Prior knowledge:
CATH architecture: 3-Layer(aba) Sandwich
Number of domains: 1
Shape: globular
Distance between the termini: 5 Å
Radius of gyration: 16 Å
CATH superfamily: Class I glutamine amidotransferase (GATase) domain
CATH class: Alpha Beta
Oligomer: single chain
Strand content: 25-35%
Bound molecules: glutamine
Strand order of the largest sheet: 2-1-3-4-12-11-10
Helix content: 25-40%
Amino acid sequence: MKLAGSPASKIEDLKRRLKIGVLAVQGDFAEHISVLKTLGVETQEVRLPQHLEGTDGLIIPGGESTTLSRLMTIYQLREPVCQMARCGKAVWGTCAGMIMMAREITEQDPAPLGVMDIGVRRNAFGRQVDSFEQDLSIAPLDGPPFHAIFIRAPSIIRVGPQVQVLAQLADGRPVAAQQGKLMVTSFHPELTRDARLHQYFLALSSKESPALAE
Ligand code: GLN
């Protein structure tokens, strides 16, 4: 489904009915909330399991995955988030959030949630000084390339048969992927003014949305 190609009235209607949760225990959740607000969507900061009630989708932001993981355990958020993914709600992990969504990672720590059939390597592009920006062609998005910001980013090193790669670097490494209504990006779309990926996630979060981009 190409949201950009949907009639404007339908997009407005979609936004009115959606409530998107953003995991707010650590990392750059405020930036995601601010993009969602510019799109006119109701948001919910998620710090406790009950904050997930009534949400149509969840964003797990970038930050530090070991801290995210520890806090998710302390606040008993792991199982409710897994449940949300299992029951077909949309969940989007960016950067550290992508690490949390993976089935397996190459490091000992953290223990990922395992909800998406991908393998991930943390800090795959080097240390902080090696953070970089790259224009990417992202399969379901219309328009110009997406300016992607990578900060101590993870990379996807394995994709399962149900996973669709949405974007890759010139060397072929996938940096955005989708499995049904689950989506991951290695980079930080909330740090740019381009809200197309957030709009795409809103389309995924709507109940009528088909599970895979066409
Ligand atoms: N390198 C971080 C980690 O391993 C992720 C960085 C980020 O989210 N920007 O958790």
